[in-house]
User: Fold this.
Amino acid sequence: MVDELPDTGEVDAGEAAEDEFDESYDPDTDAPAADDDAAGPPGPVNWNLLNADAAEEEWLALNEWVHWLRHTYGLPVAVVPPFWHRHPALVWELSALHIHWLCAIHPEAKGSAMLVWHRDFTEAQERLRHWTAACGTRLTTDRPTRRIAWPGEPDTDPIEDIVIPNREEDFVEYMHADVEARRRAEDQFIAGLVLSTGEVP
Assistant:
C-alpha cells in the first residue's frame, strides 16, 4: 500500500499519461488466448476425424488450457489428473469444456455465457471425477483404462500401474505418437488411391 500519492502538479499531463501507459501490458497473459482470426465461435472437435496437423494443434491448445484450468480453479487430481491425455473419456470431456469456454468468451457471446459455462463446468467435474476413478490414473502412476471383453471377444491384456516421473515429457511423447499414427494412416490412404481418378480401388 502507498502511504502518500506522488506530487504530479508540475508534470505535463501528456507525459504522465505516456509514462503510466504500457502498451506491452496484457492483463490476460496467463490465460490461453482465444483465436482472434476465427470468423465465429468454434465448433466441436471430433478427435476421431482429425488429421495429423490438426490433432497436434488441438493437443497443444488443450494441454495449455487444462493447465490454466487446474491452476485457476485449484482442481484436485481426482478431477483432472496429470495423465488425462492417456484416457479418451477425459480427453473428450476436457476438449468439450475447452470449446465451450472458447464459445463463452467469444465477442459474439451473450453476457451470461460464462455463467452458463460455470454451471456446465460444475456438472462436468462430477463426470471427470467418475472417469478418473474408473480408469485408475493417479498423481504419479497411470494404467490403461480397463476394458471388459464381451462374450466372444479376445481377453484383454493384464493392467499394471506404471510410474511416470515427468508428466510434460510423457504428454509430448504421447502426442507425437498419436500424431505419427494419424500421419501413417493418411499416407496409407493416399497410397491406396487410384491416381488417375482419386478414388479408392
